Amino acid sequence: MGRRPLAVTLVAGIAFAVSACTAPPEPSDPPPQTPARAEAVRMAVVGDSITAGDSRDLNDGVPGPLSWTSYAAGPEVEFVGGWAEWGATTERMADAISGPFDADVLVVLAGTNDVSTRSHDDTGASLLEIVDAVGIDRVILSSVPPNDHARESTTELNAFLRSFAGEQGWEWVDAADPLRSGDRFQPDMTSDGVHPSETGARALGEAIGAAVAE
After folding, report:
1. How far, CA to CA in Å, does 57 sit from each of 139, 141, 156?
2. What backbone torsions phi and psi does residue 195 show, to the nearest 5 degrees?
3. Which residue of 113, 120, 141, 146 is 20 to 30 Å from 126, comparing CA positions?
4. Confidence band of 116 (pLDDT split at 50, 70, 90)
């Protein structure tokens, strides 16, 4: 399979996640990673600030320590880039993505910014547009992390996402499970009640990487 670049853009903006507002962190160099093997699964991603983290160049596959993609990649999984933007709703993702992407699997972690602003039906419609634009047959939809400012709505969103993934024939991974204590973050897993800490990003990425490698 050819390895052309993904047509993507990573934009720094301001994240508005329900009642929390956080400016993007300064870009950081990626943490040490074990190189992928030649037969590794090639993973592309679509997401918001939880995926973008503090990456210098996520679009070309160079994530930062606060991006879960840093910890999903390894010998079995090669991260090849994607699209992620701070504050992006699923509607924004669907409008902005220019595909198709060149990868074996698409991982979508999206919806945190839809909570309290978009209906579940609208979120689902945007997810379908995203997958159609990317043009990858194998799709993994991940749960979103807890949101300490919108606990019940986030729990409801994850229930919808799990059901929606099943209806579409997509794979579902509750990657956010290790980050939760009930319906909120475990204390060491978040920096602000919305975004994972580096510890949280690692837990999220390892869960997603395991699902991709399967």
Report:
1. 23, 23, 32
2. -100, 140
3. 146
4. confident
